[in-house]
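Schema walkthrough. Field components (list of strings):
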Amino acid sequence: MIRIENLTILFESFKITNLTIQIEEGNFHFLLGPTGSGKTLILESIIGLRKPKTGKIWIGDQEVQNLPPERRGISYVPQDLALFPHLTVEENILFGIKAKGLGINRYKEYIQTLLEAMKIDHLLHRRPNHLSGGEKKRVALLRALAPKPNLLLLDEPLSGLDPSIKIEIQYLLKNLHASFHPTTLCVTHDFEEAYFLADAMTIFVDGKVEQVGKREDIFLRPKSKKVAQFLGAKNLYQAKVIKNDESSHRWILEINGLEFSIPKNSSHEEMEVGREVHLFIRPEEVMILREGKPIKDSLKQNIFMGKILDILEKERVHSIYLKTIKGEVPFEISIPNYAFRNLHLSIGKIIQIALRDESLWVMP
Amino acid sequence: MNFRYTMIGAALFIFIFYLGLILSLLYFVGGKGFWNALLSSHTLFSIRLSLIAATLATLLAVSIGLPSAYALSRFDFFGKRLVDTFLEIPLIISPIALGASFLVFFHTPLGGWVQEKGIYFVFEVPGIILAQFATIAGLATRLMKSSIDEISPRYEAVARSLGSSPWQAFYRVTLPLSFRGLLASIILSWAKAFGEFGATVTLAGAMPGKTETMPIAIFMALGSAHIDKAIVLILILVLFGLFTLYGVRLTGRKYRYD
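Field assembly_structure (string):
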């Protein structure tokens, strides 16, 4: 297990305080934070290139924060890859093994397996400037994995790639991890990347850890408004708790005079009447009701009338923007393209929407 | 006035200006005095002395300048800006003032002690090397720093994470990657030392057959109206200069990795 405890880094305008990350052996852990939040500084501190003000780093039972980078057993793939341009692909790959004085023969088989997995065994005698973007990523990953590090650090591994190569590298990372199980810490600002690859993630906003957990937990149940905003949450409202409905085991929240009935398990927080909270409604869980069709009981708690203000066609979904008739609460609804075609929606049309209980989440 | 032609015209003017200057020397080439001057033992001595002194001064400048350049490029330390500013001292004060400063220093108790217990510099051959070193050390450091600045510290970071010590990361990664720039810096510094006059003549004097480097020999030949000898020496300086610049260009091509 890798433990980073209470890491505090003060550098120029960056202030990162008490960062704690715990990574299980063989896990793919993501540190997610906005661009410019100091993620690279954190990586540099973990590698040992920068001395944090305080904090401890444990690799298994060994405390490594006082060791120089070359003795930590941490491999690093920076955002720009930093493949050594004066060396061939083979020399790049063997760099770590030679630098550490490990016997090349003992690693031959392992490296051959990696080469085959990454499909770059035909590039061994080329120089990095003769490789494509995707090939460079593969070589950089292989170079980092070759000396069998205790921890693999990846800095924005999917940035700056064409969409098709990005998908290819994304799958490569997933497959590599599934095959070789390197304990990995990856920093990125892109939640989608993290969602695809992560076993667990740490959300890091304004120099502090906001939430740690499994990817679904964070996606479905953000702990704070900051996390929800960072994840690009739509339909985020300030609401007031106006009633505790004990009989149905629900809270009643109010936004602009419009009442929402929220199941009590839709929050990590203890709530009380009069408290100001934030309500997050996931756009893909909002249903547009068809006229004349019967409504399921589970949907009857939150049904509103609204007027469509705009419709945006996207790659796989349509985004419908509407305002409720009562309270003029704006909504964004995301529906798959095939469903959109059957609904005959148009701007200005009055429609009825229903909120699934799963779409509702309350934060402090 | 056409913008493009104005700019190109200015560039061509500089070229023609220097070329004309060099070609004018050829007007005197070929006479009996010319060949005598070229093959005289005095001339050969000046060439040998200049080559040896410039090479030693450059070696000294590089051995101190390279680590200094690395430190200035990579580390933050107390007084860094001051050190950086002082690199330009030889460029902003005249070479004669630099040589005179040495003369003054060697007349202080510390300077006297250095000469008594160590090496005599004033009006001696080591004075030539010291004067040339003083002239080029700042420049060499500045040029080498620029070469190292061009190499992303990320390469070293990766090398360190892969098990290299700071020394290993330096000579396995930073040094080969910046080699092109470093070599060009060294060659240019050597050329500057080779042609150095002001500081050398002030500190080491103009003594025929002793401290007579090529620029000093030119100065002395002109002073004694030996025009043939002066021209021979100027042409040799020009040839060495052009050869050096060509070397820089070749180096640039050979060690490109982009």
